[in-house]
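A favour, since you know our C-alpha cells better than I do. Just paste the record in under my message, thanks.
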Amino acid sequence: MTPIYKPASHKPVSALTIAGSDSSGGAGIQADLKTFHRLGVYGQSAVTLITAQNTTGVMAVHVLPVRLVEQQIDAVLSDIGAAAIKTGALGSAALIHAVAQRLKACPEIPLVADPVLISKHGHLLVDVDAKPEAIIALRDHLMPMATVITPNWFEAAALSCLPVTTPDQALTAARWLLAHGARAVLLKGGGESHFGSSDAAHDILVEPAGDTVLPGIRVATTHLHGSGCTFAAAITAYLALGQSLAEAALGAKAFIAQAIATAPGLGRGRGPVNHWA
C-alpha cells in the first residue's frame, strides 16, 4: 500500500545540538536527535568530532576543524534557528572558544551545556595534551553562558578542581561552580555515585534560589551508554517547548529513568538506553 503523507498540523519548535558523533548511535548527536524527535522537537546538529565506537569501546576520535564547526552553527542559526541549544563533547579548547563566541550572538536562546570530557568506556573526548586548557575554557567561557550545566561527579570535580567522592563533596563542587559563573548546575549522580540510599538514583538541580532533588530508583543494568547525553538532550527539548528549568529537569529525569529501565540490551558491551521510551 502506498503510504499517505500528511503535512504537519503545526510548525514544530527546533533545537540544535553541538556535539560529537557516535557511530554506534547510542550517544552524542545521534542520541540527542533521537531524544529531540521523541519529545516532538525538530532536531538540528553541528558535529564537532567523529568517533569510531561501539558498545565495547571507543576505537578512534577525530576532532573536526574549527571553521567547519562554525559554519555548521551559522548555517543552522541563520535559517531555521533554534528554540534551545545543547552542547556536548567539543573536543578541544579552540573549539570551545569558537562555540562560545558563536553563541554569544544569541543570549536569548536557552543553552544546556553538557561538559562531556570522557566516554562511558573511559575514553577522553578532549585533546589529551590540551585537557587543562579545555577544562578552563569550558568553565570560564561556556559555563557562564549556559542556562544550566549538567556535569556528572567526574566532570564536576574536573571543572571545580575539588575532590568529589561523596554527596557532600559533590554539592560543594556544584556550589563552587555557581559561585564561579554557573547560573544553575544539574549534578548527575550516574551509575557510580548517587545521592541517598543504595537503591536511589537521585540527581540534584542546584540554583542560587535553592536545590531541587530529582528523585529516581536505581536500575541494575550496565546498559547506560548515552544516558548523560540523552538526559541533557531531554532538558534541551523541554526548554525549547517553553518549560521552566525546574519543569524541564523533572520531565527529563522521568524520561531518562524510563529509557534506562527499558534499555533494549543491544551490543556486547555497555548498550544504549531506549530512546523510544
